[in-house]
Design goal:
Elements lengths: L1 H15 L3 H5 L7 H15 L17 H18 L1 H10 L17 H6 L10 E3 L2 H9 L5 E6 L4 H16 L5 E6 L4 H6 L7 E5 L3 E3 L19 E6 L8 H10 L5 E6 L3 H9 L5 E5 L10 E3 L4 H11 L8 H8 L6 E3 L17 H4 L10 E3 L5 E3 L7 H11 L4 E3 L2 H8 L5 E6 L4 H12 L15 E6 L4 H6 L7 E5 L5 E5 L4 H8 L1
Parallel strand pairs: 1-3, 2-3, 6-7, 13-15, 14-15
Antiparallel strand pairs: 2-4, 4-5, 6-8, 8-9, 10-11, 11-12, 14-16, 16-17
Helix pairs in contact: 3-4, 4-5, 10-12
């Protein structure tokens, strides 16, 4: 009897400590797309419809082992796909889900997961957005998006999918193409006044289009003489860029290179073609040098290849030396972003980073992994974001936030300053830590400016991998751990991930 009880106790302990990330075969910092793809793969393999007991010819309920295994997989997905439940799980484990969470017990047929689930997850040109992604990437940026609001249960949505994929590939690099699954996030769709599927919406203008009217968007070209030009010279016998490809190219190089066309067959433009000795085709001209002899012939008509070649002609990213770096640490007149690399060869695959100065005109020395602020502090992109869009979002958020990476000297000064500080003790390899840093970066954007205390709040980061002795002295036992230091000398710790709004509640 004792042995049986001991075994039961061990079984309960194992179940209560189920690791949802290992169950789905993913890392703890996996994004939504990775989570969905991992779940779909397991759903197709492990679904009870495909794992019936060969000795039983009834439904899956007579094969309890397959059903129980799939319920665990489904529950793991239900928890990790939702930002709020994932936060609770990361912080408290399964105990944090006990209040009211009933997900995982019901699921769809094998055919649904095989044919209808995650219809855009294998399309890198289409970004599937959840509520948090939509807020950060669409609502908070004045950037062009074309978003397909759909439902996995909508037959018309599946009929549109091949056209949407083809359109996304044709517009890659020109505008951002997104998708929102309203079956997974109905609240987001309702907030965008989407009540029928599929619905196509252009942002930031919030223009609703019919699904039979997918067209590239016209761009206005302004002849800024300080920028280089790509000119498409048309001859009767030569090939020209189509209007669509010309617009796509202009969108890809917006703010960097002007795009224009000259029809050499027209008498009004023939003189310019002769002056430039231009033959049919596409040529690149440096800024203020639309003259014969300065052109670079571009031997293709594909907008993506033309944009890639044009970025190669732009000036290299400015280098700064040790003295320049010391000057940045003392403070700058304008925010400055710097990328630290092992060698200049590392930039060969980052040509699109040359687009950052046009997108962020108030920030100098791009691209970045560290932003230096006008206050003299700096912030490191510990998440090591890879894409141009992610890097741009980090810079835009970090230059306005009061968050700073602290040295040992700055840390000692902060905790003894008699000012209101939050110190975040973290490790760069810890996914919940990196998500919490993002919340701290956005914290001041939700603070009521009429409050007499909170706008004065300062936020510092201590890397416990680098300053382990500081973290031990502060009594840090797990990551992330935050400590609130008040002007009257009190110190209040709170452990784990917290959303920005929750942090404000804890401070109050």
């Amino acid at each position: 009897m004792r042995i049986a009880l001991l075994i039961l106790g061990l079984a309960v302990a194992v179940i209560s400590e189920e690791d949802y990330y290992k169950l789905l075969g993913i890392e703890r910092d996996a994004d939504d797309r990775t989570i969905r793809k991992a779940f779909k793969k397991l759903a197709i393999q492990k679904h009870p419809d495909k794992n019936k007991d060969p000795h039983i010819f009834i439904d899956f309920q007579d094969n309890p082992q397959a059903h129980a295994e799939f319920v665990k997989i489904n529950k793991a997905y239900e928890v990790l796909k939702d930002e709020e439940t994932r936060k609770k799980y990361d912080q408290f484990g399964e105990k944090g889900l006990e209040d009211g969470f009933q997900g995982g017990n019901t699921y769809e047929s094998w055919q649904f997961y095989n044919e209808n689930f995650g219809i855009y997850d294998d399309d890198p040109e289409i970004i599937t957005l959840n509520r948090a992604d939509f807020q950060r990437q669409v609502s908070e940026f004045n950037e062009m998006w074309f978003i397909n609001f759909y439902s996995t249960f909508c037959s018309h949505c599946h009929q549109l999918a091949p056209t949407w994929r083809k359109f996304a590939k044709s517009m890659e690099g020109a505008i951002r193409i997104g998708a929102v699954n309203c079956a997974e996030d109905p609240g987001l769709c309702q907030s965008q006044r989407v009540y029928a599927y599929p619905s196509l919406v252009i942002y930031p203008t919030v223009l609703y289009l019919k699904t039979d009217n997918i067209k590239p968007l016209a761009m206005e070209y302004q002849p800024y003489s300080s920028r280089p030009w790509i000119i498409d010279f048309c001859q009767r016998t030569g090939d020209c860029l189509s209007n669509m490809n010309r617009r796509k190219l202009a969108a890809m190089l917006e703010g960097l290179v002007n795009v224009g066309t000259v029809d050499c067959s027209l008498s009004a433009e023939h003189e310019l073609c002769e002056e430039l000795d231009a033959s049919a085709g596409v040529s690149y001209y440096p800024a203020r040098k639309i003259q014969k002899g300065y052109e670079q012939k571009m031997d293709c008509l594909d907008p993506k290849e033309l944009a890639e070649e044009a970025l190669g002609y732009l000036d290299d990213i400015q280098e700064i030396g040790e003295s320049g770096l010391k000057g940045l640490l003392d403070g700058t007149e304008s925010p400055t972003a710097v990328l630290f690399v092992q060698s200049k060869d590392a930039l060969n695959e980052k040509k699109d980073y040359k687009k950052l100065p046009a997108a962020l005109p108030d920030v100098k020395k791009l691209p970045q992994f560290v932003t230096f602020k006008t206050t003299g502090g700096y912030e490191i992109d510990y998440a090591n974001k890879k894409t141009y869009y992610d890097v741009r979002a980090f810079i835009k958020e970090s230059i306005t936030s009061p968050l700073h990476v602290l040295s040992e000297e700055a840390y000692n000064s902060a905790v003894k300053s008699g000012q209101l500080w939050i110190i975040d003790y973290f490790a760069p390899w810890c996914p919940p830590c990196l998500r919490l840093i993002g919340e701290y970066r956005r914290l001041h954007s939700i603070i009521d400016r009429r409050d007499e205390v909170l706008p004065k709040l300062k936020i510092g980061l201590i890397d416990c991998q680098k300053f382990n002795h500081i973290c031990q002295r502060a009594g840090v036992q797990s990551y992330p751990t935050s400590a609130l230091y008040t002007p009257d000398g009190r110190v209040q710790q709170f452990v784990g991930f917290h959303a920005a709004a929750t942090v404000l509640e804890l401070i109050d």
